[in-house]
């Protein structure tokens, strides 16, 4: 599997100079399998960059993308209108979400429609499919197996465990720790992952002012990583107000707790 981070910021894009080392685009992570399947996790503003590259590389060939959404908060869907493969008639996009109680197709089409955007999602040229997955329902895409699980977040959210051969990546944003059952669900699904991508929006001090907002801390991320036996922790969904200096400090402090930690930045890649 090849993993690439295209958007690492939480809440809202922050394209300001002091954030650009880690990046200002909202959540979007690309995974490609050895057999060439394309999986995209979340459609924050980072998805625009994937689309540009895909169109450039594909030439006249069709593009097939699988988009897995954690939930429908803006920072996880706002890049969708700017995902260029949607506008190619030879392309297809398969949307997936966990079952959060909101209908996937209607919710996406409701936000990408007039007067919010001049082109309706229901009218774009690419072929589209929509599939809601139950928790722990396994979906196979080429050589990858993807399994959603429930996260503790306002309006609901789903994490995903992605297995391909012997490699495991777990994508777990957005969630708040402290739920008696769902903390264990996350820990179980993160078990022995090669890479755990984890919502660590706040410092422990900031968290005290944001209880109930649906996000966790870097300290809780290092704790889960240790308990679940993961090999590499990736801090993700960075607080918009954390500039590069702050992010470097957080990464340094987190490494003191769990040495194999990196704060995600746009352009970070890993091959498993
Ligand atoms: Zn978010
Ligand atoms: Zn959210």
Walk me through this protein's architecture.
- The structure is a single chain.
- The protein is an alpha/beta fold and 272 residues long.
- It contains six helices and 14 strands.
- It has helices at residues 47-58, 104-111, 182-189, 204-207, 218-228, 244-257, and strands spanning 2-7, 28-32, 38-41, 64-69, 92-98, 127-133, 139-141, 144-151, 157-164, 167-172, 195-199, 232-236, 261-263, 269-271.
- The strands form two sheets. The protein has a seven-stranded mixed beta sheet with strand order 6-5-4-3-2-1-14. A seven-stranded mixed beta sheet has the order 7-8-9-10-11-12-13.
- A hairpin with a 5-residue loop joins strand 8 and strand 9 (157-164).
- Helix 3 packs across helix 5 and helix 5 (218-228) packs parallel to helix 6 (244-257).
- The longest helix has 14 residues, at 244-257.
- The mean pLDDT is 97.
- The structure holds zinc ion (2 copies).
- One zinc ion binds at residues 71, 73, 153, 174, 214.
Q: Helical segment tally?
A: 6
Q: What is the structural class?
A: alpha/beta
Tell me about the largest β-sheet: 7 strands, mixed
Shape: globular
Rg over CA atoms = 17 Å
Mean pLDDT equals 97
Q: What fraction of the residues are assigned to beta strands by DSSP?
A: 25-35%
Total strand count, please?
14
Bound molecules: zinc ion
| Element pattern in H and E | EEEHEEHEEEEEHEHHEHEE
Topology:
Blueprint: E1 2-7, E2 28-32, E3 38-41, H1 47-58, E4 64-69, E5 92-98, H2 104-111, E6 127-133, E7 139-141, E8 144-151, E9 157-164, E10 167-172, H3 182-189, E11 195-199, H4 204-207, H5 218-228, E12 232-236, H6 244-257, E13 261-263, E14 269-271
Parallel strand pairs: 3-4, 4-5, 5-6, 10-11, 11-12, 12-13
Antiparallel strand pairs: 1-2, 1-14, 2-3, 7-8, 8-9, 9-10
Helix pairs in contact: 3-5, 5-6
The chain binds zinc ion (2 copies).
């Amino acid at each position: 599997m090849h993993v690439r981070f295209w958007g690492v910021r939480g809440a809202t894009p922050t394209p300001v100079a002091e954030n650009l080392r880690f990046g200002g685009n909202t959540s979007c992570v690309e995974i490609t399998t050895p057999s060439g399947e394309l999986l995209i996790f979340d459609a924050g503003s980072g998805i625009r960059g994937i689309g540009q590259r895909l169109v450039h590389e594909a030439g006249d060939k069709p593009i097939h993308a699988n988009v897995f959404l954690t939930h429908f908060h803006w920072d996880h869907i706002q890049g969708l209108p700017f995902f260029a493969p949607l506008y190619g008639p030879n392309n297809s996009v398969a949307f997936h979400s966990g079952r959060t109680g909101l209908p996937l197709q209607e919710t996406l089409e409701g936000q990408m429609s007039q007067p919010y955007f001049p082109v309706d999602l229901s009218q774009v040229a690419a072929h589209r499919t929509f599939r809601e997955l139950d928790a722990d329902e396994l979906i196979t895409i080429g050589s990858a197996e993807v399994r959603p699980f429930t996260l503790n977040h306002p309006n609901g959210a789903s994490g995903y465990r992605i297995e391909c051969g012997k490699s495991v990546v777990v994508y777990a944003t957005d969630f708040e720790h402290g739920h008696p059952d769902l903390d264990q669900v996350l820990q179980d699904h993160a078990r022995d992952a090669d890479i755990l991508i984890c919502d660590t929006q706040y410092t422990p001090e900031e968290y005290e002012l944001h209880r109930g907002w649906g996000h966790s801390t870097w300290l809780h991320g290092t704790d889960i990583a240790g308990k679940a036996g993961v090999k590499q922790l990736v801090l993700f969904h960075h607080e918009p107000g954390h500039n590069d200096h702050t992010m470097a400090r957080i990464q340094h402090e987190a490494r003191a707790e769990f040495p194999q930690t990196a704060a995600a930045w746009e352009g970070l890649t890993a091959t498993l």
